[in-house]
Design brief:
Elements (H helix, E strand, L loop, with lengths): L7 H16 L4 E4 L6 H7 L3 E4 L6 H9 L6 E2 L5 E10 L2 E10 H30 L6 H5 L1
Parallel strand pairs: 1-2
Antiparallel strand pairs: 3-4, 4-5
Helix pairs in contact: 1-2
């Protein structure tokens, strides 16, 4: 047992390994992203598991942002596409499944468009303000 004040991420691998040894079960562990750390993966050895890779991980951020559109395949569920990518993290070979939700993509795009429009309007206001200033010298105006 461990203190209730310990982070799940810090003790997850240890607990799962101990559980598997006590019960000697064949199966697949399904866990939240607290399981996913290089230390936990190393501790679990040959256990089979499924978890969500946290987007706080640099490799996951890079994959999600750089994955080519043609990598995705249609899902059986409308509005979703999937891409499978082999990865090695924490010395463990893995298959990562990236799920793209078209409704989420559209929502993110609209949010970015609103931000761009807001910045464009702010830039126009600053430009108008700068246009009203009288400068004594051409160099002052350029600066």
């Amino acid at each position: 047992m461990s203190s209730g004040n310990q982070s799940d991420k810090a003790v997850f691998g240890e607990r799962v390994t101990a559980f598997a040894q006590q019960w000697n079960l064949e199966g697949i562990l399904v866990a939240d992203s607290a399981l996913y750390s290089d230390a936990n993966l190393a501790q679990m050895g040959d256990l089979r598991w499924i978890t969500r890779v946290p987007l706080t991980l640099a490799e996951a951020q890079t994959l999600v942002s750089d994955l080519p559109t043609e990598t995705f395949e249609a899902s059986e569920r409308d509005g979703y596409r999937l891409a499978c990518v082999c990865s090695t993290y924490g010395g463990v070979k893995q298959l990562w499944v990236v799920v793209e939700n078209q409704a989420r993509v559209d929502s993110d795009r609209r949010q970015i468009e609103r931000q761009v429009e807001k910045h464009r309007q702010q830039a126009e206001i600053q430009l108008r303000r700068q246009g009203k200033i009288d400068f004594n010298y051409a160099e002052d105006a350029r600066n």
